[in-house]
Amino acid sequence: MASINIGETLRKARIDKKISLDELQQRTKIQKRYLLAIEENDFQALPSEYYLRTFIRQYADEVKLDGDYLIDVLDGKDRPLPTYPELETVDGLRKNKHAENPTHARFKATLPMISLGLVALAIIAVVGYVTWLDHQETAIIPENSSVQVERSGVSSAEKISSSQPEQTTESSKKPEKPQMAVAMEANTPNAATMKIEHAEKPLKITFTGKQRVWVGVQINGALTYQYTLQVGESQTTELPADAAQAVITVGMAKYAEIKVNDQALDFQPGESLSQKNVTLNIAYAA
């Protein structure tokens, strides 16, 4: 038996924060009748167990409650709410600050002056050394050395120019790496199948939220990634290197953008507020 009433806890938090059901509906995009069902603990009225858990978390986030804790309560796994250690008082911090050793304080006050003095000495030493080197080089280099340097420069330039055609020929022989290609194979309002060819391993999937939206990734029928995006937030996940197929689920299709390896994935969400599953059939680059 759960130690708290989930619906009553959420309702009380909403009222304490002076949030109406209509306002909560606008924030979470959850229909008002489902919000009422949650507050009344009428969980059977929700479409599925998945939506029940997702809606409870979204509701909890908006009223600043721990959604994971409420899900544990729903599953019968009650756990104590986290406690936090008391912070040291401001008076204690001030006392520690004023109790600092006076000798140590004076040393700290003079430390910047000592540092500046050392930096100045280092600069003077470097300038003196560079000046001495200039005088030494002027005395050593003979007058005709400039002619030799110029001739040496011409010879080097000739060698470089003669080797360039060979390098160009070698580089032109290298085959170009094929670019990743994405194609739509089948599409309906609630499901799409897309083919990806010449993909680099590991395949990275990046989600960006236009509005608050839940996204998930399944490999071989197992949910390997899930996240609730906020407006403008981006998150990236990597598929296993040997994954030949993945299914992406977007809770409300029009509220998310998807990229694979930094290339936009046009899964054609349209204006749909329904869930959409996107199946990716992946062929990797050789």
TrEMBL record:
<feature type="region of interest" description="Disordered">
    <location>
        <begin position="146"/>
        <end position="180"/>
    </location>
</feature>
<protein>
    <submittedName>
        <fullName>DUF4115 domain-containing protein</fullName>
    </submittedName>
</protein>
<dbReference type="Pfam" id="PF13464">
    <property type="entry name" value="RodZ_C"/>
</dbReference>
<dbReference type="InterPro" id="IPR050400">
    <property type="entry name" value="Bact_Cytoskel_RodZ"/>
</dbReference>
<keyword id="KW-0472">Membrane</keyword>
<dbReference type="InterPro" id="IPR025194">
    <property type="entry name" value="RodZ-like_C"/>
</dbReference>
<dbReference type="Pfam" id="PF13413">
    <property type="entry name" value="HTH_25"/>
</dbReference>
<feature type="transmembrane region" description="Helical">
    <location>
        <begin position="111"/>
        <end position="132"/>
    </location>
</feature>
<keyword id="KW-0812">Transmembrane</keyword>
<feature type="compositionally biased region" description="Polar residues">
    <location>
        <begin position="146"/>
        <end position="160"/>
    </location>
</feature>
<keyword id="KW-1133">Transmembrane helix</keyword>
<dbReference type="GO" id="GO:0003677">
    <property type="term" value="F:DNA binding"/>
</dbReference>
<dbReference type="InterPro" id="IPR010982">
    <property type="entry name" value="Lambda_DNA-bd_dom_sf"/>
</dbReference>
<feature type="compositionally biased region" description="Low complexity">
    <location>
        <begin position="161"/>
        <end position="170"/>
    </location>
</feature>
<feature type="domain" description="Cytoskeleton protein RodZ-like C-terminal">
    <location>
        <begin position="207"/>
        <end position="270"/>
    </location>
</feature>
